[in-house]
Design brief:
Blueprint lengths: L3 E7 L7 E7 L6 E8 L4 H21 L9 H22 L10 E8 L4 E6 L3 E5 L16 E3 L3 H4 L23 E5 L8 E5 L11 E3 L6 E3 L3 H12 L8 H14 L7 E7 L1
Length: 272
């Protein structure tokens, strides 16, 4: 049985380059979601992120054959780049003075059922598992136990660099488009919530630690938007599946009331 999906997208005036797409496999065994975040405030950026999210969601659904969890991400992402190429070609005819780099976008995908969760990403944002034990904590310890960030840059460090700052872009030879894939098959998947989101809600750096320059002590750097999201989620634990709109509206109201929105914000929450 697939996890239940709720989603929302909050745009700042004059922006709106985030895009969310979600679906279920034909047998309803897996939930599918994609979040894309265009790299600029241009109209091309909006088109690129919309195309990436929709093509990614469609590609995952068609790639699943009803058997084992073996998606062909290289083929899925190659198709996204092919679509970006086609969009750029038609764009050149209409506005040749506009660079095709404006179509660049990040992308996070999620593919989840009760026993396995698989994510792919090109670029930043967050992929977060909220495990069962987190619900027993008080609000002062929201990030101490049961919250796992799979895009933590310290975990992903490779030869002194991370894969969090790549983007999907127009690329005629389609080189370098294979994404990073995260596969989770532990027995915690069945009763875990999973969150994927754009960097407007949370990005990997929000889970890092910094050293106080005078005290010499290390402190956790916390994102107030993510903390508010988790606080709101905990308050709606009993009703979030039966009345998801109440959670969505409450978080929107809280984020606006606290004036915390400084970028487009989009998320998908997978609920067991």
């Amino acid at each position: 049985m697939a996890h239940y999906i709720i989603s929302d997208k909050i745009d700042l005036p004059g922006k709106g380059e985030d895009y969310v797409a979600f679906s279920y496999t034909d047998d309803n065994s897996y939930a599918i979601a994609c979040i894309a975040d265009g790299v600029s405030r241009s109209e091309e950026s909006k088109q690129g992120s919309l195309l990436a999210a929709q093509t990614g969601c469609r590609g995952i659904k068609s790639s699943f054959d009803g058997g084992e969890l073996k998606l062909n991400y290289k083929r899925i992402y190659a198709e996204i780049v092919s679509e970006l190429n086609r969009l750029s070609e038609s764009h050149i005819l209409l506005a040749p003075e506009r660079p095709h780099s404006l179509f660049a976008t990040t992308l996070i995908t999620g593919f989840i059922n009760e026993s396995a969760a698989e994510f792919s990403h090109v670029g930043n944002g967050a992929i977060i598992q909220i495990r069962k034990e987190w619900w027993d904590l008080n609000d002062d310890n929201l990030l101490l136990l049961g919250i796992i960030n799979y895009l933590n840059p310290h975990i992903l460090l490779r030869d002194g660099d991370t894969p969090l700052y790549k983007v999907l872009k127009v690329d005629q030879d389609k080189s370098g488009m294979e994404p990073d894939v995260i596969n989770i098959t532990s027995n915690t998947v069945a009763d875990s919530f999973f969150l994927i989101c754009s960097d407007g809600l949370c990005t990997a750096e929000d889970f890092t630690f910094f050293e106080h320059p005078e005290e010499g002590e290390f402190y956790r750097k916390e994102n107030p938007r993510l903390m508010l999201f988790l606080q709101t989620l905990k308050k709606h634990k009993e009703t979030i599946k039966s009345s998801p709109g109440e959670f969505v509206d409450s978080f929107r109201e809280n984020i606006n009331m606290n004036e915390l929105l400084n970028d487009d914000l989009s998320y998908v929450l997978f609920i067991p």
